[in-house]
Design goal:
This protein is 61% helix and 0% strand. By secondary structure, it is mainly α.
């Protein structure tokens, strides 16, 4: 369709501008032409409107017909997108998008068809492509951006964040498109483009992970909490994957002997640290063989990712080969609950009674206990969630005295920004079963993608291209859903813990945990090394170079990339989601145990990537106490890796299962209590106040008479008649009035 877009632009451009190219025009002439394009969008004919929209899309794609290199295409794409936005293109395309969403004829036509093809969503795909390019190009900041571009970026962010002209925010419109698609009312919607655009819009309006870290620091300062001692993003960047360095094979015998004698470096001396100790089945060995050989052979390439440091130079190898880590990567943390539990056990043992939540009185306890409490308090960590939960508990106890102070400083919540969270929450929850399961590589379930061919009879080559494109669409859908959900959950958690718990509980009830585990119950090595892309057909390469003749052999060979970072990104996001849903939730941790997640997660550890391994080890750590002594005994290498890479919680007896939290009880009560707290929070924050005997009464005459009442628009026309009928003509018996009151 690149050629079609170019042809539509050139046909329109020749009729408006004589003997010139787009890049030769002055800025004023370019603006005048764009204004003419937007005027020609407002025509009745759908065909003419589509041609003009394609011409705009060609501009947003960088007018590649006049460029000589890929760098030029990307440069002019960015320039044209800022120009298009400043001329009002986004607002014009937003109106067209509303028209296409409300097009009942297209919906009914798609519902009657036995199979949906790419031709059914042509107009929608062109509109969404233009909007995506505008959002993505304007969203990305560069040091060379002019002041005018920076101002345009902030204006665009505000325009996308809030409702304009009595319309809903743009993200809410995209959520409604997802809801209509998932409910089956609009099967022709290009859901891949919708999800991808939705993720970018949320990232642009709310901020990405780095912005979240800045907001977290600001909020901790506002609440009077101590600053963070470490940046988790930077810590993970400095971690290395648990795998043998490629240069250990070149060590001398004396150095190798030195390495093998160090127990602390046992992790570096194993060729495959996480190779399961149990004998693997033949099917597992066959499925993992090819991918594992490829991954081990390309270890250096993998560790050149920004998440891990580059390989050291030859000059520093001799010193670094035998350098031991000075300490654990994470500083230990202690909760207030942990200190209280430790003192409760100590007082019961040495004194025979407890003092509740008092952590300051240490009378009667031996000196080592004093030192232990001092050490625990030094590493005490109070999270924003702890403060918010404490405020809600106080508000529950004293609803009348604290309501004014808390509501007065209450921030504008994300739920209010996105209207009612129940609206889009339903579409998020139905995304999981509809897409995450079918989007697995070897799933037999079908999933509707944007690449279905409208032609029935195709050749073998076309069939291979279509198969690769369908798999690529599935990967992008998983990437968009996982990134969108993770970003929303992190923002909700920062905004208020009960908003986060509200969304999390709905995701758990929508079978999110077993679906993620089902996704990982495959050969993750093969998934991450999948080659479902054709590099010569990717943008902007395909717009500059002459396309070579594609054959079945070239398609089978794939591109030169050894790893698919898109799939690695999706896997890390899903693991982080699973961590957020299960952290400090014993009932959900038991779900991991019941669904036998340990062997599934252990297989994922074969991927030699630090961040992915970290979140897998976190998930294994929280359930080791439930897996039994035999499992821990036969997986000591995994236990060692958990000790080396995961943050330690003092007094957390995760490795032995003696913790009181590991004892069985009614796990359902935990979820019920959480749900009651969430409903109380939602009732206080979002429900309209109901009249009750505790409602304050205004006794001031001036205040009561000064209240504004909602009156009908025509009331002032009949005001005198109303006075005559309702006041002057009604006799008042003052004696009865005094007797009754």
């Amino acid at each position: 369709e690149f050629t079609t877009n170019r042809r539509c632009f050139e046909e329109d451009f020749k009729t408006q501008v004589q003997a010139k190219e787009w890049l030769e025009l002055e800025e004023d002439a370019q603006k005048a032409y764009v204004m003419g394009l937007l005027d020609r969008l407002e025509v009745v004919s759908r065909e003419r409107r589509l041609k003009v929209a394609r011409a705009v899309l060609y501009l947003a794609q960088g007018t590649f017909g006049e460029c000589d290199s890929e760098v030029d295409v990307l440069h002019w794409s960015r320039y044209n997108c800022f120009l298009l936005y400043q001329m009002g293109t986004f607002s014009a395309f937003l109106e067209l998008l509303h028209m296409e969403i409300d097009n009942s004829q297209a919906c009914s036509s798609a519902l009657r068809k036995p199979a949906i093809s790419i031709a059914d969503s042509t107009e929608l795909r062109v509109l969404l492509s233009v909007m995506y390019l505008l959002v993505e190009n304007i969203r990305l900041e560069r040091e060379t951006d002019s002041c005018r571009w920076r101002t345009a970026r902030e204006t665009f962010r505000t325009e996308l964040s809030f409702s304009m002209h009595n319309e809903e925010p743009f993200a809410l419109l995209l959520f409604s498109m997802v809801t209509k698609f998932c409910s089956g009312l609009a099967p022709h919607f290009p859901i891949k483009k919708v999800l991808l655009l939705l993720w970018k819009v949320v990232m642009f309006t709310l901020g990405g992970f780095e912005h979240l870290q800045v907001l977290k620091i600001q909020k901790r300062a506002e609440l009077g909490l101590p600053p963070l001692t470490e940046d988790s993003i930077q810590v993970v960047k400095s971690m290395r994957a648990a795998s043998p360095p490629s240069y250990t094979l070149d060590l001398g015998e004396s150095q190798l002997q030195l390495l093998t004698k160090q127990d602390s470096l046992d992790i570096y001396n194993e060729r495959d640290l996480f190779k399961t100790e149990e004998p693997a089945t033949e099917e597992e060995e066959e499925s993992a063989g090819d991918g594992e050989r490829t991954l081990d052979g390309e270890l250096d390439l993998l560790e050149q990712d920004p998440l891990v440091p580059p390989p050291p130079s030859q000059a520093s190898l001799s010193a670094e080969r035998v350098a031991f880590p000075k300490g654990l990567p994470w500083a230990p943390k202690v909760r207030q609950k942990d200190i209280e539990h430790f003192l409760e056990m100590s007082r019961n043992k040495f004194i025979g009674f407890t003092l509740g939540q008092d952590t300051d009185t240490l009378v009667g306890l031996p000196r080592p206990i004093h030192e232990s409490v001092k050490t625990l308090k030094q590493h005490k960590y109070i999270s924003i969630a702890d403060v918010q939960i404490k405020n809600e508990e106080d508000l529950e106890k004293c609803p009348m005295s604290l309501v004014s102070s808390l509501v007065g400083t209450l921030e504008v919540s994300l739920a209010q920004k996105f209207k009612s969270p129940k609206f889009w929450l339903s579409c998020i929850c139905c995304l999981w079963p509809k897409y995450l399961g079918p989007c697995r590589p070897h799933s037999k379930a079908t999933v509707c993608t944007d690449s279905s061919s409208p032609h029935r009879s195709i050749t073998v080559l076309q069939s291979m291209k279509l198969g690769i494109d369908v798999n690529r669409h599935k990967e992008i859908i998983v990437k968009s859903i996982s990134a969108l959900l993770l970003l929303l959950l992190k923002h909700f958690r920062l905004n208020h813990i009960y908003q986060f718990e509200y969304v999390s509980q709905h995701l758990v009830f929508a079978n999110c945990i077993p679906l993620i585990l089902k996704f990982f119950n495959q050969n993750i090595l093969s998934y991450i090394t999948a080659k479902n892309s054709i590099s010569v057909l990717d943008y902007p390469c395909c717009t500059i170079q002459d396309l070579p003749e594609l054959t079945t052999e070239s398609l089978e060979a794939g591109d030169n990339n050894q790893f698919c970072w898109r799939n690695l990104f999706s896997c890390i996001n899903l693991l982080r989601l699973l961590n957020k849903l299960t952290k400090w939730k014993h009932s959900r941790t038991m779900m991991l145990v019941v669904f036998k997640s340990a062997p599934i997660l252990k297989r994922a550890l074969k991927v030699k990537q630090a961040m992915l391994q970290l979140y897998v080890l976190k998930l294994l750590k929280i359930q080791t106490k439930y897996l039994g002594r035999q499992w821990r005994k036969s997986n000591m290498k995994t236990m060692s890796a958990i000790y080396q890479k995961v943050r330690h919680r003092m007094n957390d007896d995760w490795a032995y299962g003696n913790d009181i939290d590991a004892r069985p009880w009614d796990f359902q009560a935990e979820e019920c209590t959480l749900r009651a707290n969430i409903e109380a929070f939602n009732s206080r924050r979002y429900d309209k106040p109901q009249d009750s005997e505790f409602s304050p009464v205004d006794n001031c005459l001036q205040s009561v008479l000064g209240q504004r009442l909602d009156l009908p628009e025509d009331f002032h026309y009949s005001y005198e008649l109303w006075l005559e009928r309702e006041v002057f003509s009604q006799p008042i018996c003052w004696e009865e009035l005094l007797q009754n009151h």
